[in-house]
């Protein structure tokens, strides 16, 4: 039985997690460029959007920690997705691949506080397909 649908969904999910990893990397880049962020925040000139230094430091700490969590969990999800797709090759171990897809989708979506949900949906659907689709049985007479 061909597992083309599961592999395609896995690839789309991995690309979604790659986008999440890029967002996490962008957060880390912003944390390293404090001057640029501070300049863009003070450039508006609107007195209602002014931040205290304490609020600014909290926002920068959030960017750093959130960026690392997003980057590491997304890379782990990509690696686990590739492992699951390799297990699907040749229809060797679809049940294990399905469990990996589903567990990765749920855990990464929770860890990333919902940022990984769009990509995780593709992994979840691929995992369900891996578990539900059974090979056709042929009757010999």
Automatic annotation (TrEMBL):
InterPro entries on file: DUF4064
DUF4064 domain mapped to chain residues: 2-109
Domain of life, per lineage: Bacteria
Any single Pfam family the record assigns to this protein: DUF4064
UniProt keywords, alphabetically: Membrane, Transmembrane, Transmembrane helix
Transmembrane segments: 7-30, 68-88, 95-126
Protein name: DUF4064 domain-containing protein
């Amino acid at each position: 039985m061909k597992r083309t649908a599961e592999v395609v969904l896995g690839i789309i999910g991995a690309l979604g997690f790659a986008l999440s990893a890029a967002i996490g990397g962008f957060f880390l880049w912003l944390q390293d460029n404090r001057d640029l962020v501070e300049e863009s925040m003070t450039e508006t000139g609107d007195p209602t959007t002014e931040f205290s230094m304490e609020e600014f430091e909290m926002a920068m700490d959030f960017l750093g920690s959130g960026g690392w969590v997003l980057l590491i969990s997304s890379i782990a999800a990509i690696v686990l997705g590739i492992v699951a797709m390799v297990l699907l090759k040749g229809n060797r171990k679809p049940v294990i691949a399905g469990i990996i897809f589903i567990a990765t989708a749920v855990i990464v979506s929770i860890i990333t506080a919902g940022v990984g949900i769009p990509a995780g949906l593709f992994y979840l659907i691929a995992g369900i397909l891996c578990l539900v689709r059974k090979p056709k049985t042929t009757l010999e007479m």
